[in-house]
Amino acid sequence: MKAIVQEEYGAAGVLGLADVPPPQPREGLTTVELRAAALNWHDVLVRQGQYSSPLPHTPGADGAGVDLSTGEEVVILPSLWWGDDDSAPGPDWEILGDHRPGTYAELVQVPKECVAPKPRGLSWTEAAALPLVGLTTYRALVSRAGLKSGESLLVLGAGGGVATAAVSLAVSIGARVWVTSSNESKIARARAAGARGGVRYLDPGWPEAARDLVGGRGFDVVLDPVGDWAASIRALRPGGRLAVLGASRAEQATLDSRPYYFGQYSLLGTTMGSPRDFSGLLRLMDQGASPPVIDRVYPLEQAAQAHTRMESGEAFGKIVLEI
């Protein structure tokens, strides 16, 4: 079968198309014939070697295709062996494409519990773009932060996959959503997708500017996928919740203890979710939540160019490989 393979860690150019053996049948696993695979920033980190993936390696966590054991059109849950405790993943948990071959291929093998029917009305590219960021965002907003209809949400970093998914899911819940971005064009695109507005985070006073958007009191929930915890807390109302799930801007955060506990804030760490979270996400999609925003589609053999696009910071929404 054809697959994208990296023989070494490094820049996007290490990704190349190759012929590799197809997966062999194994108890408890099923093989999916992929139609599309979506990129995530996680894939860039895998490519760079930050997860010590075995070489040679095929990256990719997101995919959609046909389950060869049933003939059903499915999406893949990339959160493998989560376990029975929904509060946190178990000791065997891993992300597809970290230590086993991922979805940048014609075929991928996953646990049987990690396939679900493709949501009605989604194209192959939209379905492939849904699982990782959709599940991560659903868990952050619904399972962890408990976002409710009528509440206010601020999403950091408009344009990324998590941010675009957060706008869509929050609007479908009935929340009021604002965003931050480095430029006005991405704020405008977020507004077109359902956000009510936003602020530019290049201004050091952006948390106070964001608070002004909701009458000065602050937001019920802030979703931070970039690691800017101290500034994010400044945008919260007293008693607000901060859900954090990434560190693209900062690996460490320093918080002032006294304002934090007097503010009665909740700091909620979160990652991808469980199969039960995934079922909740798929129910929202079937109830009419907007499909994932697609930035650009590339053929499988152009995975390196797709990674270059992702790293440019110019994309708005998901980048997808068509297989």
UniProtKB/TrEMBL annotation:
Pfam families: ADH_N, ADH_zinc_N. SMART domains: PKS_ER. SUPFAM superfamilies: GroES-like, NAD(P)-binding Rossmann-fold domains. It comes from the Bacteria. Residues 10-321 form the Enoyl reductase (ER) domain. InterPro entries: ADH-like_C, ADH-like_N, ER, GroES-like_sf, NAD(P)-bd_dom_sf, Zinc-ADH_QOR/CCCR. Keywords: NADP. One of its GO terms (molecular function) is oxidoreductase activity. This is Oxidoreductase. The lineage of its organism: Bacteria, Bacillati, Actinomycetota, Actinomycetes, Propionibacteriales.
